[in-house]
Amino acid sequence: MAAKITYRRIYEDSSPQDGQRVLVDRVWPRGMKKEDAHLDEWLRDVAPSTELRQWYGHDPERFTEFRRRYLTELHDDDHQEAAGHLRELAAHDRLTLLTATKDVDHSQAAVLAEWLAKKKR
To answer: Fewer Cβ neighbours under 10 Å: the N or C end of the chain?
Structure first.
């Protein structure tokens, strides 16, 4: 049976159904205490580059291009190790990707969830 991959905001309460909880943001979420995050890991190196994140600015009209650029970044030297580790986690357990972004459907967490699901096929 394939492990389930989901994504949501880090500010939501944790759940026993989360499995491994991994923060995929480059910067720590504002107002979140580390002890309240209930994280298994923080993989900041899998997050979009600072340049890409700033260009995107969470503008839904730029999401398609953001997604394309981010998927390209996942194969570069700066992201490869963290991306491989995330694939390994996804292969063995339920995985919840966490982000502070308000619009999670237009976030790197959504892109990663889709990417991981395709890698598992």
So the answer is: N
Nearest Cα to 99, choosing from 16, 4, 6, 15? Answer: 6
Tokens of 101: 């972004």
| Ordered DSSP codes for 25-57 | -SSPPTT--HHHH--SEE-GGGSPPHHHHHHHT
pTM comes to 0.92
Residue of 44, 50, 48, 1 lying closest to 22 (CA atoms): 44
Write out pLDDT tens, residues 52-102: 999 999 999 999 999 999 999 999 999 999 999 999 999 888 999 999 999
**Would you state the torsion angle of the CA atoms of residues 56, 121, 95, 84, taken in this order, to the nearest 10 degrees?**
-70
Give yes or no for residue 120 having a pLDDT over 80.
Answer: no
> What one-character-per-residue DSSP string does 56-114 give?
HTT-GGGHHHHHHHHHHHTTSHHHHHHHHHHHHHHHHS-EEEEE--S-GGGSHHHHHHH
